[in-house]
Amino acid sequence: MPVAERGGRRVAVVTGGAGAIGGAIMAALAAAGHAVLSLDQAGDPPVDLAREDEVRAAAGAVLGKHGRCDVLVHAAAAFDRADLATVDLATWRRVQAVNVESALLLAQAFVPGMAARGFGRIIFVVSDTIWAPPAGDMLAYVTSKGALVALARTLATGHGADGIAVTCVAPGLTATPTARRDLPPAAFHEARSRQALPRTLVPGDAAATVAFLASDAAAALTGQTLCTDGGLVLR
After folding, report:
1. Beta strands 71-74 and 120-125: pairing type?
2. DSSP letters spanning 158-169
3. Cα dihedral: 182, 97, 208, 146 (round 10)
4. 167 CB neighbour count, 10 Å cutoff
5. CA distance from start to end of the chain
6. How many CB atoms lie under 10 A from the CB of residue 46?
7. Among 109, 110, 141, 225, the one annotated catalytic
8. Residue 40 pLDDT level (bands cut at 50, 70, 90)
9. Residue 45, Cβ neighbours under 10 Å: how many?
């Protein structure tokens, strides 16, 4: 029986809620009736997702205060850029820790409760760059997003019988404040020119897809990656 039918609210935990896409996801889930919590370096308290101890402590605090996590959305990402010749292991490991390992640690913390209740949603925000890397210096980032897709598929297989659906959302180039600051207008024009739907993507595009995947309406979806990139990558 859904939590809402028992008079409660589903609890959603979103990493990277201080970012544009993460913030839009939090707003969409709150609008859908979830109690929404953010785990973020800019949060209160701040959580460094590269540190195992802080991630485990944050998960424990969520369970201690709210007793549950029904929906886990991993939207946080480290985006350190370096190509094969210049990447160092410290940078590589930090990107993998934030982007992949924190997702694993949070799943370890929350899946047992989801399984006990017979309901759970885990959603990883990845990237359409997995299928078309735009530059060699995105090596660590693109690799981490590909690893998240593999993690999601494996968790979907392992925990479907527990009522837990695990999916990914892959945005394309999105007009976030950071992207607007770091990229010239020509980059957005070039992306639009390659999309089947030639419109600039906004954070709400990914957020709407996440909210759908978190809902009962997506009960038959698991192990899939939905590209919210205007049809730039057709899979």
Report:
1. parallel
2. HHGGGTEEEEEE
3. 90
4. 25
5. 34
6. 12
7. 141
8. very high
9. 10
* Cα→Cα distances 52→55, 111, 140, 210, 226, Å: 5, 17, 19, 26, 29
In the annotation, is 141 catalytic?
Answer: yes
Query: What pTM was computed for the model?
Result: 0.94
**Residue indicated by tokens 């739907």:** 197
Q: Helices (DSSP H) in the chain: which residue ranges?
A: 20-31, 52-66, 89-96, 102-117, 139-159, 177-182, 185-194, 203-213
Buried b (16+ CB within 10 A) or exposed e, 77-99: bbebebeeeebeeebbebbbbbb
pLDDT tens for residues 4-30? 433 479 999 999 999 999 999 999 999
Q: Cα separation of 136 and 82, whole Å?
A: 8
pLDDT for 219 equals: 95
